[in-house]
Specification:
Aminopeptidase, single chain, 7 helices, 206 residues, alpha+beta, two-stranded antiparallel sheet
């Protein structure tokens, strides 16, 4: 199957990690655009790990164990699903160079996926970058009700258990605000980042 990505230029993984450590991340205009631009928002979205909110209806779905939640089982399929066109979105910012770079980060142990499976099918998930005690959420998708939301719940559980200090969402949306996401001014965010990036936290338990 032909992937919907333009080849473009490569993003060196060392440059990408340095960018994240300084509060910068890459995006593309569309999946078919070979170019990448770097973003340093004036305000940054985060979900405080000690104030994560689970709506009552979602809590019920979590307790019902509707999905088989896996970590890093099929990372590349999660990225591809996040990049697929949807009814509400004609294109995405995940192009060829971005996909390639995050796959490389995954192989290096710096990028992870949380996946919702049902009856052998991947029906939801998210992925992000792990650096120091920070997890930078990149993208999420859902093909069944609550699939990506359950993944977010399991992500936060793991981050808290493994000693992470900061969950970065890049931007806030009404959807993420339901879980406690807030906007932080860039100066304050970069101070939080500098403190959390110095520590160490292992995403995958021993």
């Amino acid at each position: 199957m032909t992937r919907p990505f333009a080849p473009g230029f490569r993003i060196p993984t060392d440059l990408l990690l340095k960018a994240y450590a300084s509060g910068v991340f890459p995006m593309a205009e569309s999946a078919t655009d070979p170019e990448v631009f770097w973003v340093r928002p004036e305000t940054r979205g985060i979900i405080p790990l000690d104030a994560f909110h689970i709506p009552k209806s979602l809590a019920k779905a979590v307790r019902r164990n509707l999905f088989d939640v896996r970590f890093d089982f099929d990372f590349e399929s999660v990225v591809d699903a996040c990049a697929e066109k949807r009814e509400t979105r004609a294109s995405t910012w995940i192009n060829g160079p971005i996909r390639e770079a995050y796959v490389q980060l995954h192989r290096m142990g710096h990028c992870h996926s949380v996946e919702a499976w049902r009856d052998g099918h991947l029906v939801g998930g998210l992925y992000g970058v792990s650096l120091g005690r920070v997890f930078f959420g990149e993208s999420m998708f859902s093909k069944e009700t609550d699939a990506s939301k359950v993944c977010l719940v399991r992500l936060v559980e793991r981050l808290n258990r493994q000693g992470f200090a900061l969950l970065d969402t890049q931007f806030t949306t009404e959807h993420l605000k339901r879980f406690g996401a807030v906007d932080v001014p860039r100066g304050k965010y970069e101070k939080m980042l500098a403190q959390a990036i110095k520590g160490t936290a292992d995403f995958n338990p021993s």
